[in-house]
Amino acid sequence: MQPDIGPVCQLQLEFMKWADDTVLTAVSQVPPDKLGQDLGSSFKSLFDTLGHVYRGELVWLKRVQGQPDAKLADIENPADMAALGQAWPELHRKWIDWSRSLSSEGLQEPLIMRTAQGAESQLPLWQAVLHVVNHGSYHRGQVATMLRQSGIKPPGTDLVTFYRTR
Hints:
This protein has 5 helices and 2 strands, in the order αααββαα. By secondary structure, the protein is mainly α. The protein has a single domain (5-26, 37-165), classed as Four Helix Bundle (Hemerythrin (Met), subunit A) (Up-down Bundle). The chain has a two-stranded antiparallel ribbon with strand order 1-2. The longest helix has 25 residues, at 125-149. 25% of the residues are buried.
């Protein structure tokens, strides 16, 4: 018996929102002049890493909403942390509203998209949801390390911590 994927996807997107919000609060303790400091991670700084997570969530939303050619390279980073802090809640709301608009059967529908090289690929919508949530978790782990390097204790953003807060 397959689980009802609709509520699972909604819960995962609520986790994504909670974890992103939690990290933004922690990063607000970092002095502004340190947000762009190169800390040797894949996206060099705290700001660049958070911007990448935001842009990733945005590009995948565009794809699931019918823009198969949406590319990360076409999405600009918010100008600064204030702009990111203003933009992210609306993006989370759109993800959650989108997920609530679909049935479990609708989440089984294929997402058809094109790679940067133009090759077509597809996966069920629910797999795209789990991918975007997992992608953010990966990079929030990097942010935790960068916060430690900046002398700030990172918050817990594990899924089980989210479950315990509910």
